[in-house]
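**User:** Here is a favour to ask of a fellow structure person. Please take any protein you like and set down a full record of it. No explanation is needed for now; the record alone will do.

**Assistant:**
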Amino acid sequence: MHIDILTLFPDSVGDMLVESIIGRAQERGIVRIDCHQIRDYTENKQTQVDDYPYGGGMGMIMQAQPLHSLWKHLCDEAGYRIHTIMMSPCGKVYKQEDAKRLSKLDRFIIVCGHYEGVDQRFIDECVDEEISIGDFVVTGGEIPALAVADSVCRLVPGVLSDEECFTEESHWNGLLEYPQYSRPEIWQGRAVPPILLSGHHANIKKWRRKEALRRTLLRRPDMLETAPLDKTDKKLLAEIKAELEAESGEPEIDENRS
């Protein structure tokens, strides 16, 4: 896996990606992440990368020329058009399925926007997809790019010690992850759920699945609309709803009843 990040701050972005798990994966040659300085590809002495927007308005716009020159250099060097992503609040909201999809590519480019935006002509010419990490705006594309790069790299075989490290996590199977506990057995008067100490793996597995369903129902009920639930899951969900009704002392609301 090879990721190229086009940014005005390559040192700060690169420093984050040489630490911890992703850093070790780079050392072992499993992934490669190159951060490229956009200013190096300007055609003026001032290394200017932005200018005023046509039509007026606040702020500055990143110019198409330096971005295109850098993008073309990378594609020419590779010998093919590299799949290119633009981090943008106008893009499709990023999901775990996107991380899975991108992890199957051999190489892709992430463009970090800045200022009030990027000249649309570069986007039309070079960008294959625009991605947003949420319905909010940050000062630049570097933090979103880091999030995408990290989420993709950890799915590459060999980056994590075992596939189960990510297949049991939130969003992998359409649910949020179940609660996790570690030593000590009792902390601040709070005890680890007894079933996790039982050694009964089948019961533990069932408990974890039920707690994942419970957490998803309470925090992200929208995810249950598309989660791949089987008959056992639906039975567990019915149990959870009955338990929540008993706890609240209020009858459960039937959303299908007028």
Summary: Strands lie at 2-7, 32-37, 50-51, 61-62, 83-93, 107-112, 129-132, 186-187, 190-191. The chain has two domains: 2-153, 168-258. The mean pLDDT is 92. Residues 201-219 form the longest helix (19 residues).
